[in-house]
Input
Amino acid sequence: MSEEFHDDLVEPGATGVPERFFDRFMFNLHPTWETAPSVITGFGHYPAKDVADGFAIVTTDTEQRNVRFSTELSATGGRGAGPLRFEVLEPNRAWRLRLAPNPTGMEYDVIWRARTPYWLGDVAVNNADAATTDFEHLVQSGRYEGTLLLDGEVHRVNGWYGQRDRSRGVRNLSGGQGMHAWFQAQFPDRSVSLLLVEDRGGGRLLLEGAVLHEHGVLDAVVDVRHDLRFDGLDLRDGTVEVVTKRGTTYLIDVDATAGGGFMAGGGYGGHHGRRMGRDHLEHDTYPLDGSVHQRTLDSPLTDRLASYRWNGVRGTGIFEFALSRSTSYTYRPTLA
Output
């Protein structure tokens, strides 16, 4: 397993970085077979703005609970803020994550350990407004050990799946996207991991990723086709075909009807990196009764814990998706 990626976040006090520079991580945690609870935690440093912020989301069968927190980066030790603390136990192999009491009713003390090598790419896009997007992007599959406390009930999470996402660099928002998909299908011996972005005409803007095998092989993704069914902007089910550099084709059925995973609850939609002062914390709850959806929130981005089936093998994992809310866009399947 490569050690090339510098896994620690940039330290407080870093100088000489662009105003929009960020260094962030996101971890998800979920059972091997069930689709609840689904836990997503993220945190980032913005040294030029002297900001550190993060979030924690838990989705149950009936609701999604969110807590968001922010402070001055210079007021931290560089290892968390609000209720969240983290520690890189072994770079690119093991992290410890702890969430203290907070308004969601969720706490945890877990260790994530890598089960596959990581995929590391560079996302470089020249946007129409001349603002450059250029950042490193890493994904890696692992398993957890430890405990999750939810409403007073202790869950042993030993063996639960978790995909981590690390990104570092400069990201600028730009219009024109039609569909965004961060597809993470966890199977017992591998993870099918890819990022696909299409424009509003269905043309491909970005494709990166790989099938990450537990025995150490990393097989790059070279093509993706999809036939997905949406209820408005909300994914219900469908099929994704993934072709790898080694010539393997994966035809994966998706069931995304579990609900929840609305990333507006984690501050997506332009809130990350904003100066909120010291020790800022806010929280809310989204009922999963249809009253909250991609058109009522700041962002349509959704990290849905989905069920998968490939070649008779069951799997679970996060399917992150977002369709443009522009009336000029209509989803177009590419898998006949």
The chain has no helices and 21 strands.
